[in-house]
Structure formats: structure tokens, C-alpha cells
Amino acid sequence: MQLSNEEVRRYSRHLILPEVGLPGQKKICSTSVLCIGAGGLGSPIAMYLAAAGIGKLGIVDFDNVDFSNLQRQILHTDADVGRPKAQSAKETINGINPGVEVVLHNARLTSENALEIIKPYDIVVDGTDNFPTRYLTNDACVLLKKPNVYGSIFRFEGQASVFAPHLGGPCYRCLYPEPPPPGMVPSCAEGGVLGVLPGIIGCIQATEILKLALGKGSSLISRLLLFNALDMKFRELNLRKDPQCPLCGDHPTITKLIDYEMFCGLAPEPETTAQNPDEVSVHDMKKALEEPKLSVKVIDVREPDEYEIAHVDGVPLFPLSTLPQRFTELDANQQYFIHCKSGVRSMKALKFLREQGFKYLKSVKGGISAWADEIDHNVPKY
Fold first, then answer.
1. What residues act catalytically?
2. Once rounded to an integer, what is the mean pLDDT over residues 17-32?
């Protein structure tokens, strides 16, 4: 391929690097990358790869842009709220570099479509935020012999690596043979994330992709880079391929994609809308607060910082993290409605209290988010 005069001007700062030059820029421009996720990590990855001249950039994302995304997902703007992330990403990418071919996969990555979607690309970059998709991405990349440029973020910490058994390194399963128990690791929606953190980790992932495209430098294959933003410190762990790995080991037992929701211990979505017998609605919660004769008490199991952002007057705070120490302050014979942000932690609190002998418990479906939507629009959503 030949670079046009305009492309020479665009990539001139690459061309004068001896490690890149004209041959290297041609390699970058002929490389195809699949970015799984157009969110916090996917934003800097896609934007810097587009600026660098990656020839073909696939975007996998089925979500719509939400206001809460804008604090870190710089592919999107206020005007994109409510729109598909994939479409918003394409417009931003082409605004940076019209010469990049952007291919949209506005769908959830599944065991049924992953191999077909990933196969045409040279490199895959993992910008996901959940364990089923991480294991799915890893397994598909190993089966197809594609480098998997990994990154993850939480609160103030991030990590990055390159998983590529076909290039001599380990895979994601070598590092994490089993997923954590469901609910053990909070999502960013529950635990929060510093807005610039995905920018840092995403830029590291983009750097690794360009090095792979160029065939230059020492990649993160067989290394895990750990970053703590509060301490502004990087640490590095050496990784080894696990000969017992069921996917990339000496005697693999995983030879095709599996059910990753089941593997991660996540129950499938119910096919009906029938209410869980352990749940009540926010309207039930409102009635309990307004009618003392019902003898139902409501408690909030979110964290103090969340309570300060938004709370329902008259509802005391019993953070889930402190329940093991504080549950004796509650009456085991009292009926309680338990609420949190969305209904996940309240179900955990219900399960814990039930194990302590509490019998009359209900979780408020949708939590304070549903309260803001259906009962009091003055309560802020976060």
C-alpha cells in the first residue's frame, strides 16, 4: 500500500520515528482491531488507534449512552445520551480520522456469535466490564489464535496485560482459573471509578496494540501491569502459562465456547416478569413509610457516600459492609423492607439476615433508582 500526501502529513510524527518509519506506518494502516466495548476503556483505545491510523476498527457494544457514562467515556457527549454507543463511537472515530474503516457490531458478544465476529480481525482488545464476557473473549481469542489485549479498572486501580498463548504467553484463565463468586466483586456502578483511570489503562492497551502491529518493543505478554492512581505507582507481576490450564495447557479440555453466564454462576434472566417472592415494589415501600399500622420498617444498605447523594427521608442507614457487626441492632422479629441502589445489595442483605434468624424480610426491587423514577423525581439518580 502507498500513503497519500495527506496521510504522510497526518502521520508525519510517526514517520520520523526510526522504530516506525514508512514501513511501520503501513503496517499500522493495514492492521485490523476489534474493540469489545465502547465505554470507559474502549473510548481512549478507539480514539488513539484511530488517530494512529489503524486501518480497520471493529466496535462491539449493544448499550446506549447514559449520563453517568460521560464522566469517563470520552467517545460520547451530552448530545449522544440515549443513542447507541456503537453509533456514537463511529461518528467520533471518523471525526478524528475519516480514513479509518469502522465496522459496527451493535450486539451483545455471545458464545453463538463470538467466533464469527472476532475471526476477521488481527488483534482483539478487551474493554469489557463483566466476567462472563472476559472469559468468552479470552476463550474465543485462544481458539482463533488472536492476541487479547486485556485491561480492567475499579475505583482507583487498574491492570493490563496481553494474553496470547500462540505467542508463548499465558491466557486469562492461567491468571484467573475461576471467576469470583457472583456479587463478590462490585461493578463500577456499585463501587465507582475515578474518571481518568480508564484513560490511563486504555492508553496502555492502545500502546500494546500498536507495538503488536509494528512488531516492536517488549509487550505485556507474560506480564501483568498493576496501577494504583492514589499512590501513582505501577507494579509488575510475571505471569507463566499454566500447563494444567483447561484451555491453553498441555491437555486442553475446553475446545469450544461454553455457557459463560453459567460458568460465572450467574442465573439466566427470567423469561417471565413474575415478581420474586422476596421482593416488593417501591410503591409497597412508600405505603410502609406512610402507614405505621403496617408495622414495617425500611432500612437502606448502601454506603454513607451514596446516602449523602440521595436518600429517602426517615429511612435509617445500615451499610451492607457493616451488617455483620451491626445486625444485632435490628429486631429479628420485626418485618423489614431493605433497599439499596438497584436491588442487588438489598438481596444480599436479605440473604445474610435470613441466615441470622430474621424471618420477615423483603428486598425493594429497583432500589432508590426505582424510587426516583416512580415515586419522587426530586431524588437524584447516580
1. 188, 340
2. 97
